[in-house]
Amino acid sequence: MEMRKLKIRDLTLRDGQQSLFATRLSQSEIDKLLPLYENAGFYIMEVWGGAVPDSVMRYLDESPWDRLRACSKAMKGRSLLSALSRGRNLFGYKPYPDYVLEGFYKEAIANGLNVMRIFDALNDIDNVKESIRLINELGGIADGAVCYTVDPKVDPASLPKVGFFGRLLGKKPQEPEKIFTDEYFVDKALQMEALGAKIITLKDMAGLVNPLRAASIISKLKAALKVDVDFHTHCTPGYGLAASIMAIINGVDILDTNIWWFGGGSAAPAIELVYLFAKKLGVEIDVNMEAVGAIRKQLLEARRSLAAYDLNKDRMPREFDPLTDTLPAEIEAQIDRAVAAAKASDEATLLDACHAIEQYFGFPKPNELVKDAEVPGGMYSNMVAQLKALKADDLLDDAMRLIPMVRRDAGLVPLVTPTSQIVGSQAVMVAIDRRSGKPDYTTKSNEFISLVKGEYGHTPVPVDPAFREKITGSPVEKPYDVDSYKRPDNPVLADMGGVKLAQNREEELLLELLPNVAKPYLTKRRSEAYAAEAAAAKAAEPVVEETPQEPVTGPVITAPMGGRVIEVNVKAGDKVDKNTILLVYEAMKMENDVTAERDATVKRVFVKPGDVVGTDALLVEFVD
């Protein structure tokens, strides 16, 4: 009997580096790896999308399109190349009209993309259907991703009380109805398949699928669907490896993994550990593991180059080659114990054995805080950073306890980018409101207002109209009107020889999708070109001494936290009323309004669009 084959989607060059090293893997390091990938035989390689287009411009000063082209040229069609997109939102945080989706997908496929994994943070099918249609029409492979999430934990104190006679009759407080059942995920998957998705992924971005739940959902997806089923998870709370084993046992077609040095911890499981288990299960990993070994050696150097972003640089896993290294008897026994427990659906023993194996190899321990809080690790770290910037670190526990309330108020949204950041940021704001003696939701982010209004799409549970009115000023759900979409300006740069900021379709798309990042990136490209042409003239310009800055004497507005200025709405001499929006800045990937605290006259504005400011930086001074 022919051995069953398991196809692998390698995440190393996208999700692996994003999860562990802040998406800082440079093109020069990737260029060293790509020739080794050519013969590895991965069914799919995820190389693009997610945070990559943003980060390579923002932090590495590189072109996202060059990265995709380089991967495509090196692989020569040996593996399918995939990217992750947020459906209607693509890689950004706002819905785009169909012509933007079509233009972007067309350009991506022309540059070598094969598979587009499409998800929506709300699991709103309306937000993915157009992307699925376009990818198929343009010759790509549409991969429909259903986002896994859990129902919020219930605080017993918040449940309706049971009266005296009810207690006598043995009644218990009524808990809210469970929304995120197995049937919920299967129904979403069937809808995506009906729209034309050629792969269905159960996308567990927070690693919250415990092994028995993985077995339950994967088996039901396999029974219900005709297309391949892919399982994507992370190891953050300690379930990843064990859940992947259960997915294999229950017939998953494709499994997402990383290569050793980029696996485990907050990333997906390492393929080398999956390989050990697959051998015991009589399943063939459909990959050239010798080629994986060559990649693994080069990846160690790549990881060392990322030491500045590596939280575990002093606690890296021990080196291991599953093809040549002999396992200690006790670890071999733990693998056998884990397989037996998995087949017997003994979750506790399975997890215990997997954790012992991961501990032996030196992978990070499960993050118990993330596990107990049931939130993505990135959401937690964003909340910590936000509170630190606000000098309110002591409010972390309060903010974490507020997450279930904020989720329920906002329609029980799944916690995945961008809703995880929106909910986490809003929980922080409510915690600060309470400390200040203000009513809940006195302070609100623009994104939270948009979410409650309905601009991100339909939430799993309808938002209470009274709450929507409290947050947005109207009880009526108002979806984002894509007809009102305004293409970002592509200005003529008069001070750089009169050239346009974006000079071709690729650059125009970057400007449309990520304007706040693309503007400084493209401005630098135009500036470099102009400087090269005008070097001699600039060298001859006389040096002008700067005028000493006048001391600050009037009332000022300072930055509540560090970020990048997006727009400035006032200038010196303007008279402003209380609550006038003075400027908008981006912090923690959220847009924030800075408003006047009273009627005043602007004396000076200290910042301009594109400036990066720190916490408490001067923004505006008023006439005293």
What does this structure look like?
By secondary structure, the chain is of the alpha/beta class. It folds into 4 domains: 4-152 and 180-302, Aldolase class I (TIM Barrel); 375-483, Cyclin A, domain 1; 497-540; 556-622, RNA polymerase II/Efflux pump adaptor protein, barrel-sandwich hybrid domain (OB fold (Dihydrolipoamide Acetyltransferase, E2P), Beta Barrel). The protein has 23 helices and 19 strands. The strands form 4 sheets. It has an 8-stranded parallel beta barrel with strand order 1-2-3-4-5-6-7-8, surrounded by 6 helices. Strands 12-19-17-14 form a 4-stranded antiparallel sheet, with no helix packed on it. A hairpin with a 2-residue loop joins strand 15 (581-587) and strand 16 (590-595). The protein starts with a strand and ends with a strand.
Write the layout of secondary structure elements.
Elements: E1 4-10, H1 12-21, H2 27-37, E2 44-49, H3 52-58, H4 64-75, E3 80-85, H5 98-110, E4 115-118, H6 129-137, E5 141-147, H7 164-168, H8 182-195, E6 199-203, H9 211-224, E7 228-232, H10 240-249, E8 254-257, H11 271-281, E9 283-285, H12 289-305, H13 329-343, H14 347-361, H15 368-373, H16 377-389, H17 396-409, H18 419-435, H19 446-453, H20 465-472, E10 492-493, E11 499-500, H21 505-513, H22 515-533, H23 535-540, E12 556-558, E13 563-568, E14 575-576, E15 581-587, E16 590-595, E17 600-605, E18 612-613, E19 618-622
